[in-house]
Amino acid sequence: MRKSTLRRSCAALAAVTSFALAATACGGTTKEDVKSDTASASATGKADPNAELKKGLTVGFLPKQVNNPYFTSADKGGEAALKELGSSYKEVGPSSATDTSGQVSYVNTLTQQQVDAMAVSAQDPGALCTALKQAMSNDIKVVTYDSDTKPECRNAFVSQASAEDLGRTEVQLLAEQIGYKGEIAILSAAQTATNQNIWIDFMKDELKDPKYKDIKLVKVAYGDDDAQKSFQQTQGLLQEYPNLKGIISPTTVGIKAAAQYLSGSKYKGKVKLTGLGTPNDMRKYVKNGTVEGFELWDPAKLGELAARTSVALVSGQITGKEGETFTAGDMGEFTIGKDGVISLGKPTVFTKDNIDQFDF
Ligand code: RAM
């Protein structure tokens, strides 16, 4: 038995009571113990690449937001992979992308339910840390996917693509579309979102290149991955900046809402829009001339890789240390990079020429 019953019931207790109470009841575990336990999770554990993949595990998926079609696809990918591996899937999560305390409660719920691993897309880099460390100290493997927490608060991060590539290519796409001239804005998701914020930092850095000297980033607006708010924020951007030439929306909810607004307005085809969207959401806006090009990875593949990484961690094939490798089924071999990051690969750019080849 991999886990001691005592540790598990302590996890359950800690999840529902205050930490101090749980610590006392569990034989005096201190915060320091938890810290060093966690730090050793990937630092001193030894990976056995030949270890057999365990079956009968339960992996809990905790997306940023459950009613977001992007996460529905991602988590379905995780579910299918777990089924194939002989393990079980469950999904919990908040319906708003700005409910960080809700996410913390869900981490505690999964800990209490004694899952073997959890795959989490973090709404905020720091807010989940204590709860995730508590999960790890109870032998639950923690994988972040899509949006990371701090490296010490999880065993591995399954990243959709290089954050740098994503940030820079979105600026490159928009710059070409507007002829390297004019005011631009960003319509992001939640203000705390780890993934969007890293991409935006790289967008700003890319804009420092002299070739963009005639482009001015006038505002970063936040639509909170809420369709209505994102629509209103787009409307607000155009009111505030009537000369706006382009918008980058690095969120599937944001880009869809922005396209919807632009498509029904006098700005259609004049104010350019790019960012990260699903081909199924964006097809009609590409075909009606609102959007020329945008990008994304396959969310189902991201979820699949998060599930396979979780099972590899629980089975001891990997510990999350840089340089370790594992085979993720038909997806092939992956090597863990710096800070425990596992990268899915390169995103696809969608235009009218290829969009019909994709169905997600
Ligand atoms: C939204 C979410 C998610 C992001 C995608 C691109 O669905 O914010 O975190 O990765 O967009």
TrEMBL record:
<dbReference type="Pfam" id="PF13407">
    <property type="entry name" value="Peripla_BP_4"/>
</dbReference>
<dbReference type="GO" id="GO:0015762">
    <property type="term" value="P:rhamnose transmembrane transport"/>
</dbReference>
<dbReference type="InterPro" id="IPR013459">
    <property type="entry name" value="RhaS"/>
</dbReference>
<feature type="domain" description="Periplasmic binding protein">
    <location>
        <begin position="59"/>
        <end position="317"/>
    </location>
</feature>
<dbReference type="InterPro" id="IPR050555">
    <property type="entry name" value="Bact_Solute-Bind_Prot2"/>
</dbReference>
<feature type="signal peptide">
    <location>
        <begin position="1"/>
        <end position="22"/>
    </location>
</feature>
<feature type="region of interest" description="Disordered">
    <location>
        <begin position="30"/>
        <end position="49"/>
    </location>
</feature>
<dbReference type="GO" id="GO:0030246">
    <property type="term" value="F:carbohydrate binding"/>
</dbReference>
<dbReference type="InterPro" id="IPR028082">
    <property type="entry name" value="Peripla_BP_I"/>
</dbReference>
<dbReference type="InterPro" id="IPR025997">
    <property type="entry name" value="SBP_2_dom"/>
</dbReference>
<protein>
    <submittedName>
        <fullName>Sugar ABC transporter substrate-binding protein</fullName>
    </submittedName>
</protein>
<dbReference type="GO" id="GO:0030288">
    <property type="term" value="C:outer membrane-bounded periplasmic space"/>
</dbReference>
<keyword id="KW-0732">Signal</keyword>
